[in-house]
Amino acid sequence: MKKFPFFLPFGGCAGRCVYCNQQVITGVSTLTPPDEVARIVSALDEPMEICFFGGTFCRFERETVRAYLEAVKSFAPRGSRIRFSTYPGDLKDRKLLELIMSYNIACVELGVPSLDTAVLSDCRRGADPEEILSELAALRDECVPLGVQVMIGLPGQTIESSLSDIKRLASVKGAADWDLRIYPTLVLTGTELCNMMEGGKYTPLSLMEACKWGGRLLDVATGLGFRPIRVGLQESDSLAAQVRGGPYHPALGELITAESLARKLIRVNRRGPWTVPLRHISKLTGHGEFGARRMAFYSSLPEDEILNLIDFFPSR
Question: Is the pTM of this model over 0.85?
């Protein structure tokens, strides 16, 4: 089902994390009120996932939450579903959870940038990792459709800590299907992180560091049964103009996915040959044959031999 997003920058947020500038990320500066959501979705000609991103949805006043949900239920095409992002712990209120689940919810996406106490503290994100995991388990037991949003390259974060995070999340997820978004940290105008970088207190990831880290995390996450739905921020002119540091690239998600694919193929057969669905051809041949070059690195084979060892077959 296609997604139709509404961005509610900082809507419901009690504070601001050091890396966050939702106006820059989304290109939206004001909240769309529920009556405007109703007007817009009433013009849609097919069922869609109506999404509310860019804020902390469940920290709005309860009647505001109800108004947004009701706008979709009453005015969007029949069969439409609702997806929103919020903070872990926001659904501990039983009455609020019952209200939410009385609507056609596709997914509740929870921001879990890290489960490392020191990293969370450095990011000005007050949260107890054990409480986060407990709250996720409670929502899982209530059969709430869940997704998690994780980050890489945060202040004080390491590859090892982020791999530990995804494994801890997987231990709670169990056999459930959870969506996953991976966001490499960018240094944006107007953020505390920008001040930290300029003051020498934070060093952002390079593009290659982000590809290696993100690819390894994606590889592990898919092996643990997560369902990746986005890697990297949505490209936009407003975002490109306001990035001051970090692994910005208009195809960052494709590069990270290519790194993950290269790791998988080499693990299956270190020296080839390989059979790969045709839908993945761009990951291996695009961007200067980035994926093929990464396979050459892992296999120690000459770069010009890699593509000759791959048989691309039509994918369904």
Answer: yes
